[in-house]
Each structure stands twice: as C-alpha cells, then as structure tokens.
Amino acid sequence: MEEFYKNKKILVTGGTGFLGSILVEKLLRSFPDISKLYLLARKKGTMNLTERSKKYFKDPLFERMIYLNPNYYKKVIWIEGDLTKPCLNLSNDDMAVIKTVDIVIHLGASINMQNPLHEMIKNNLLGTAELLKICLDNKNIKCFMYVSSAFSNARKSCFRIEEKIYESVVKPETLLDIYNALTNDELNEIENTLMQDWPNSYTFSKNVTECHCDAFKDQMSIGIFRPGNITSSFSEPYPFWVKSKAGLVGAIMLVGSNTLPSYYIKNTTMTHAVPVDMTANALIACTYDIVKNKSKDTKIYNYTSNNNPITYREVCTHTTKNEQSSLITNNYYWNAIKNFIFMYIPFLFMDIFRFFTRQKTKYLRIYEKINQFVNAISYFSNKPLIVDNDNLENIWDSLSQHDKDLVPFNLRVIDWKDYFYNLPYGIEQYLGIKMKF
User: Fold this and answer.
1) What is the pLDDT of residues 163-198, one digit of tens each?
2) What 8-state DSSP symbol labels residue 6?
3) What CATH class has 2-244+272-308+385-416?
4) Nearest-CA neighbor of 136 among 36, 24, 212?
5) What is the rounded distance in angstroms from the CA atom of residue 281 to the CA atom of residue 366?
6) pLDDT tens digits for 215-259?
7) Domains of the chain: which residue ranges?
8) Which residue range or ranges hold the Thioester reductase (TE) domain (predicted)?
9) Global pTM?
10) What is d(CA 100, CA 97) in angstroms, rounded to the nearest whole number?
C-alpha cells in the first residue's frame, strides 16, 4: 500500500474537521512519499491560509508526525475555496491544480442535524456537485472518494443498511434546480414533504449526495465511504484523542459532566461506534481498493462495529463506571419528567436571578441547545439498525500483514469496556471538559 500512495497527488476537503485532521496526520506520518497533499479550506476570519496552516499544525495531534516527518510542510499545499459557492470560489490557478490530482477524498460537509434543508443542500450537495464537475476535466483522477455516513439511509421505514446506493425521493439535479429557484423560506415550507421518511436534513442530504456521486461512475472511479458513530482515537497517534463534540462523544460529555440529568435509550440499540483513527485507516484502505480493482460501478463501504457490537446502554454504563446509573432510563416519560425537574427548572431560576441582577440571561438558551442536540441523537440511540459491512471485512482479509499493521482498522480487537471506561479522560485532556465520575 505504501508503494501505491508513493508520488500520488491527493486532494482532501474537510481536512480541518475531526476525521479530516486525523486523516491528514496519518497520510503525512505513514505515507511520507506522497507527492503533494492539497487541503481545500475556507478563509477563516482575518487569517490567511499561511497563518491558518501554522495554527493547524500546532495541534498536539501532529507532534508525532512532525517528529517522524519534519519536512512534511513541503508536501502540504493549502487551497482557498468554499464548498457553498459556484466553482468552489476557486482561482483559475487552483482550479487547474485540482484538475491534476490523482485522488480526491471529499470529507467536507455540515454535520449539524438541526440545520434546515436549504443549509444542508448548500453545504453538502452543492459543494459535492461543483467538485465533481471540476474533476470531470481531470484526466489523471484515479478515485473520487465521497465520505458519507452509515446513517445516510436511516429512514424511519428502514431497519437495515446494505452496501448499495439507495434511490433518493427526488433526483439530485431536480433538488439543485429547486434550491436555485426557491427562496429559503419556500424551501422550508416543502421540507417536511420531501423528508417525511427521514429523521433530519443531514441524513436526507447525504442520501441525495450519494445518488449524485453515483451518476458520475461512467466518467471516473467513484467510492462512497460510510462510517458509523465516530468516537475518540483508539491508538493513533495517541489514545483517546478527540476534537469533535458531535454524536456519541457529545452524549458522553453531557452525561459525564452531569449537565444532563437523564438520558433515554433503548437497552438493545447498537451504537455502531468506530474510533476516528481506525476510521481514517479504513478510508485509506478503501481508496486503495477502488484504484486497485478499477471497478466500473460505485463501490460502497459501510464501516461499523457490527462484528464487535456495543449498545448505547453499555457505553453509558462503561463511561459512568456505574452499571446501575440513574442517569439512564428506557422510560420516555420518566426521562422527560427528570429533565424538566432537574435541568429546566434550575436553568429557569438561574435566568430569573440573572434578570433581576441585570445580567444577560443565558441558561434557557443553553437548555434549548442541549434539548435540540439530544432530540437529534435520540432517534439513533433508539432505532434498531443493522448495517452490513462485508466490503471492508473483505478488504481486511485480503491485506498483507504489513498493510494490516500500517492501517489497522479491525474493530474486533477493541475491548469496548476498557475503551469507553477511559474515553472521558480523553475528553478532559483534549476538550478541556471536566468529567464528574
């Protein structure tokens, strides 16, 4: 696999995110002979890309990589672009550069499940469509890997996710036409009609974007990588490194900091948890597989812990170190009562106190944000869902021992009890949030 990545030009979007950061670190540390690593990123505030690059690589995540590959900066080139703009808002020179890369790994997306549909179309579908159009003029491209989600088809009527493309309720091109023709308010009015079988705009947008990628399979090799619930690192470059507060990690933070007095989950619902470093390794292996096999059809790779499952309840009991934790309930109404009494009412009185002492109120706004987050993730923590993952299992079985050591992603080796018992310490160390157990 090292020989395969040697002298390759790779474009990564979303490289500043949780999975993107660990992917960049892994590529620069374990594949130092890549030719160039292009990172597409938006301008942030008044920082130019040179300043942003310096800040980015000061993260403790990159310390080991910099020690092993001190000349990494010669490989990295930042490209200023915006996935929400036509032609990604690229300069002509940057556009020409993208047309020369060998591999595109497209992680850039919004994962905010509370966003309205028009935001998700702009952030997830539009950017992917623009990037694909640019790549059509690239005669060197060997793989376009779109990073989706294992929950992209987690519709209310679906209980098993297979490794295949699921037809969207509206064609991607039609949805883009609707987006361009209607105002945001008009789109919001038809949102419920379009998404009636989907729990949120995030899963809906991922499903439509997958279908759009599939439409390009005759022009280039397309892969779709669907990771499960991404959590802290397992071992690389350091155990329990974490950057994101989304998904399962966010739920653990709320429970572990005693912010959330009660968490409603069904006892048997699987988390489909995947550590972020193993996820990056699996993504690298899938990209290699696409190019090696030169598949004419879009290849789907679901990456979840099916073969070493763990439930949401087990996660909570391991992280709280309490098998009989009173924080966890499978009674919906008792959960609502506890959160009202032990969170809403105290927050209300704290805001009343702040109001009468002429301070700006804030606690009910915090409560609303927490409530929105919990409502978004509760769909997944209470929905029985089987996710097939045969394609990645087959890749693992086909790898040499050297490659297995290079990109370990076999989830069967994880002792989930030990992993989730120690995960809160990673949250404390890397996110600075005090856990109270």
Assistant:
1) 999 999 899 999 999 999 999 888 888 888 888 899
2) T
3) alpha beta
4) 212
5) 36
6) 999 999 999 999 999 999 999 999 999 999 999 999 999 888 878
7) 2-244+272-308+385-416
8) 12-282
9) 0.94
10) 5
